[in-house]
Design brief:
Helix 2 packs across helix 5 and helix 2 runs antiparallel to helix 12. Strands 1-5-6-4-3-2 form a six-stranded parallel beta sheet, with helices on both faces. The chain is built from 15 helices and six strands.
């Protein structure tokens, strides 16, 4: 065997920056002790609710990732985001997209608890139409379909909540699910917002795990976002190293991974993202500091915050075993998991007795949800403090007064076109010829000119040969870039 000298390959320079959250936390003001005290209580309630949801479905959902990402999402909802509980559809508000669709249990639990806080703090803020709320009662519909026969589901008109998020749920703009699917579509939300609002664009906060980055489509999307400099994307990466089949998804140190040979920090840095590393993903000081730095818009690159966590933290089942599994129905292990909540709030969850009929299980499920409602009612300081935080988020949104750019697209104009009236410029002369792909490109180009460029197109490296480049006629050549070429309608997607 030939002997050669080996070395270490290093990355070239990047537009993005690398920051350790612990360093940032030491340089930023210490979070108010009152906030830390109340958010710890809220997190205990949230983690307990995740266990209850798994118990009463029964035995369905993903408690592990829902729990490990909880503090990240809580910090966004009660500190870092600008939005209003009164209007889930406001297009100028920051939003969360759960690209990690298997964390739906956590999403539903978090949304219902936040809604309960707002309801007890100031119910007048909430939309009158309950379809635009996610109530505690809606949790009775977790993993149920619209034909569910149990009495409380019918009485409260609970939403049939799927195993993965869908726009039926307030504040959710698109459906997500299998690994990698939600990343590109979540980025699409951010692209649209950045194109419409320019540098005033709302943030799209995307929740994902390292397993969701392993598909090739996820890495193509990351490359596209960084190349186009879409800096209103913040990816919140719950790095717990656990998938359904492995506790070693990525390479770590000298140990090769079971799936990929990078870690999330390296992957994001390779693709020219800003990278913020939260070494302790359960430390609110580090979490808050990382998010505060990210929303300051460090530069024109998207940002990935990597939180090191443990899947199933404090649940009693950790790692891959908590990915889609949990404690048996009303088992001693389940009630042991409820104990910290019971001790902190001096309450006792009702126990299951009698026949395990659907109606009886639902009745106990609702009793346990009502106990959580009562805990909020018995702790008005918690409700008032976190309710004030929701008020502040809405006030910040109003103060920002985000406005579309002067020549923003006018999507409504597309729908004003008469489908039965063919525009003269799209008619092929008698005796002439065209191709279907050219006709498509020309039609998209016409609609773009009518609507101020509402359509962005992509064709890998085949714009000319597919004639889709005709959709960009009248606009700047080259690829769309949020900073340097924002008038082009062509996206650079591999």
């Amino acid at each position: 065997m030939t002997s050669v000298t080996t070395g270490k390959m290093e990355f070239s320079s990047r537009r993005g920056v690398f920051i350790k959250a612990a360093t940032a936390a030491a340089e930023l003001p210490v979070p108010p002790a009152e906030f830390l005290r109340h958010i710890e209580d809220y997190d205990l309630i949230y983690r307990t609710l995740c266990g209850i949801l798994f118990n009463f479905v029964p035995q369905s959902g993903h408690p592990g990732g829902s729990i490990s990402s909880g503090r990240v999402v809580e910090s966004l909802l009660f500190n870092s985001m600008d939005y209003t509980m009164g209007d889930p559809d406001r297009h100028d508000a920051d939003l969360i997209s759960y690209a990690a669709g298997h964390k739906a249990m956590g999403l539903y639990g978090m949304w219902a608890l936040r809604n309960e806080i707002q309801k007890q703090h100031d119910e007048s803020v909430l939309p009158r139409d309950e379809r635009h709320q996610l109530r505690l009662e809606d949790l009775l519909g977790f993993r149920r379909n619209p034909t569910q026969h149990t009495p409380l589901f019918k009485k409260f008109k609970a939403k049939p909540l799927d195993g993965h998020p869908a726009p039926l749920v307030p504040f959710i703009k698109l459906s997500t699910g299998a690994s990698g699917v939600g990343i590109g579509s979540s980025f699409g939300l951010a692209f649209g917002a950045r194109d419409y609002f320019a540098d005033q664009a709302p943030f799209v906060h995307m929740i994902e795990g390292e397993g969701g980055l392993t598909p090739g489509r996820a890495q193509e999307a990351m490359a596209t976002a960084a190349t186009a400099q879409v800096n209103n994307i913040i990816m919140h990466l719950d790095w717990n190293q656990a998938s359904i089949d492995s506790d070693k998804v990525c390479r770590e140190g000298e140990e090769p991974g079971d799936y990929v040979q990078w870690n999330p920090l390296e992957l994001a840095w390779l693709h020219d993202w800003n990278v913020i590393y939260v070494e302790d993903g359960f430390d609110y000081r580090q979490i808050l500091a990382a998010q505060q730095v990210a929303i300051s818009k460090l530069n024109d690159q998207p940002t990935c915050i990597v939180y090191r966590t443990v899947k199933g933290w404090k649940y009693g089942i950790e790692g891959r075993k908590s990915h889609g599994a949990g404690h048996k129905f009303c088992s001693p292990e389940f009630y042991n998991y409820l104990q910290p909540f019971e001790e902190r709030f001096k309450v006792s969850f009702p126990r299951f007795e009698g026949d395990k009929s659907d109606d009886a299980v639902e009745a106990l499920f609702y009793e346990q949800l009502l106990l959580i409602r009562q805990v909020f009612a018995d702790n008005p300081e918690l409700v008032s403090y976190l309710g004030d935080r929701l008020d502040q988020a809405a006030a910040r949104l109003e103060a920002l007064n985000r406005q579309p750019r002067e020549d923003a697209p006018r999507v409504a104009n597309i729908y004003k076109q008469d489908p039965l009236q063919q525009p003269t410029e799209l008619i092929t002369a008698v005796g002439g010829s065209t191709t279907l792909r050219a006709a498509l490109g020309d039609t998209l180009g016409y609609l773009n000119r009518q609507s101020g460029g509402s359509i962005l197109v992509a064709a890998a490296d085949l714009y000319g040969s597919t004639s889709i480049s005709n959709a960009n006629a009248g606009y700047a050549g080259g690829f769309w870039n949020a900073v340097s070429n924002s008038s082009s309608r062509q996206l650079s997607i591999g």
